[in-house]
User: What shape does this take?
Amino acid sequence: MSDSLEALVEAYALKDETRTGWQLRGIEAPESVAAHTWGVALLVARFCPPEVDRERALTMAAVHDVAEAETGDIATRAEAGAQSVDAEEKERREREAMAGPLAALGEEIHETWEEYEARDTAEARFVKDMDILDTCLQALVYERNQRYDPDADNPHFEEFDDLDEFFATGEPRLSTARGRELFESVRERYETTKRNR
Assistant: This one.
């Protein structure tokens, strides 16, 4: 029990771990990884299709980024050469975190995290799509609330205007019909908000 509590203390770092992509874009007071996790869980609760085990998907949503308590948030970038850490290195670091300081979270959490990473089940694919959708919804929120300066010279986003890169990185990774449908709806609202800025 005490090892589990210590692992939870480690995992609670996610409450203070700011999402890197928003920081790079200059978002005012960006969300934490834990706030993102809550958004993913809410999307799973609201849009879970009948063929997906809701309880399994909700557990997966809650733990899908837990390794980032140790590794930090590594943003997915669309621009050529902008990725700070390649996919293999990111995976190595996260597996090391799950086998090390976070191992005492328990076998069930570890297995659920592994299932999410593998994307071999309907639950994992659906949760990944909700992970992507949460980022796009958050971009819509930041756009509507004008939480960044769209005219600022930002060396991190040379190929994309506004918050467009978050949609560009998300769209090719979608794998479910539900995810694609929701993504298009969010992107339409985002584009309308930009036009009316």
